[in-house]
Specification:
Shape of chain A: elongated
Number of strands of chain A: 3
Number of domains of chain A: 1
Oligomer: homodimer
Largest interface: A-B, 47 and 47 residues
CATH topology of chain A: Arc Repressor Mutant, subunit A
Radius of gyration of chain A: 17 Å
Helix content of chain A: 55-70%
CATH architecture of chain A: Orthogonal Bundle
Strand content of chain A: 15-25%
CATH superfamily of chain A: Winged helix-like DNA-binding domain superfamily/Winged helix DNA-binding domain
Strand order of the largest sheet of chain A: 1-3-2
CATH class of chain A: Mainly Alpha
Largest sheet of chain A: 3 strands, antiparallel
Order of helices and strands of chain A: HHEHHEEH
Chain lengths: 109, 109
């Protein structure tokens, strides 16, 4: 640790911020547990604001990690969110990297 | 998962972005393994730019999670970074929350 010439790559370098960011990690783990979840459920489960949820869903949708369907429950609009296959795969990669980080953090104690 | 009236709090809601952010999680895990690390070592180990490392070290220093010491190695300036007790505690909390998230992600498969 005292030799600056040694270049190793730490597992955190492999983290993809599209999935690692706190709210997005929450969205994907909730969706991984459920077939689909609606906007209100996600917002309440994650304890974030409408605006925060919307902008993070947009990032995940742009990455192809979630699919968003707007439906009507009678006259009430509902927004359903589903994780895509790519989204589940991205979450699995994140979890694998987190396990490597945890193993190093635990090993150092 | 289909009842929006149920308000549960997901473990991601407890994540502290000061520690969770990718580069900062990297800095704290490297420092947790070492007594101290210098700027160049951290930069190379994490594969980030000087500017990115500087700004994230500033956030960690402002939070009281790292201590930064500027020394001279002959005429060459060196910047040493050490995790504080609060920084190690914050990393331990992050790791505990990550374990809870992983347990849920793994359980859902």
């Amino acid at each position: 640790m005292t030799d600056p010439g040694v270049t190793t790559t730490h597992p955190t370098a492999e983290l993809d911020n599209t999935v690692h960011q706190r709210a997005r990690l929450g969205i994907l783990t909730v969706l991984n547990e459920a077939e689909r979840a609606d906007f209100v459920y996600l917002r309440d489960a994650l304890g974030i604001t409408d605006g925060n949820l919307s902008s993070n869903l947009q990032v995940l949708q742009d990455a192809g990690y979630v699919k968003i369907d707007k439906t009507f429950d009678g006259k009430r609009p509902r927004t359903w969110v589903t994780a895509t296959k790519a989204g589940r795969k991205a979450l699995a990669s994140e979890v694998a990297i987190l396990k490597a980080i945890i193993a190093r953090a635990d090993g150092a104690r």
